[in-house]
Amino acid sequence: MPASLYTIGEMARRSGLTVRALHHYDALGLLHPSHRTDAGHRRYTDGDVARLRRLTSLRALGLPLDRIGALLDDPGADPVAELEAQEARVRAEIAHGEALLVRLRGLAGLLRNGHVASTDDLFHLIHLTTMYEKYYTPEQLAAIKQRGEALGPEGLRQSQEAWAALIARAQAAVAAGTPPEAPEAKAIAREWAELVRGFTGGDPGTTQNLKRLYDENPDLARSNGMDPALMRFVGQAMEAAGVSFT
């Protein structure tokens, strides 16, 4: 006799599923109670619990029930790979939730400081939300969030001020016709690379996605004072200074 036996009610209570769901899995042939008592009552075993764990993990991955049935009955299926896939999905959901928290906190900060959230504010938030999710992976967004939290409100303010001052210096250098190989231009390039690394953490993937974001959204760059002429100047100055973002 198996070491442990469970009624359908116990299985439902301990797994968080409903009795109806367990009956459904039974009817589909996905999970049968594999033991019968002397009185003929059907009971689930520890092996059935293990099968149910696999079944619910595969369901969480979004697989259809017919595909799940084939995997459950495949002796060559890798349960470790199934768990790792589920872990990756959960991590992605956590990262997405954390990124959403960052955006909500930003809007809350505006409201807390007496700023009335206009329709334009909300459209801007929606635009940034979809843009960031398009260009950065959930893992990259989570890392960006962690770096922002490490800086704290004062550090973020100082970073924003540093960017504004540096862009102003670069604009003045372009207006004055400063050569990219000039000492002032090289100094701007080195500070520019340092500030970018503060955002990307020096991660090549995040750096590449940041570049793609600005390349494909020139209006975003212009709204931050970075027109094509300025960006060419900074790129040439970085080349002259021998510095990079990574």
How is this structure best described in words?
- Helix content is 73%, strand content 2%.
- The protein is built from eleven helices and two strands, in the order H-H-E-E-H-H-H-H-H-H-H-H-H.
- The protein is elongated, with a radius of gyration of 28 Å.
- The mean pLDDT is 80.
Quick structural overview:
This protein is 73% helix and 2% strand. It is mostly helical and 246 residues long.
Arithmetic mean of pLDDT: 80
Q: Main beta sheet: strand number and arrangement?
A: 2 strands, antiparallel
Query: Can you give the helix content as a percent range?
Result: over 70%
Strand neighbour order, sheet with most strands: 1-2
Catalogue the unreliable spans: none
Query: How far apart, in Å, are the first and last alpha carbons?
Result: 63 Å
SS strand fraction = under 5%
Radius of gyration: 28 Å
Globally, the shape reads elongated
Number of helices: 11
What is the H-and-E element order?
HHEEHHHHHHHHH
Q: How many strands appear in the DSSP assignment?
A: 2
Domain count, please report it: 2
Structural class, please? mainly alpha
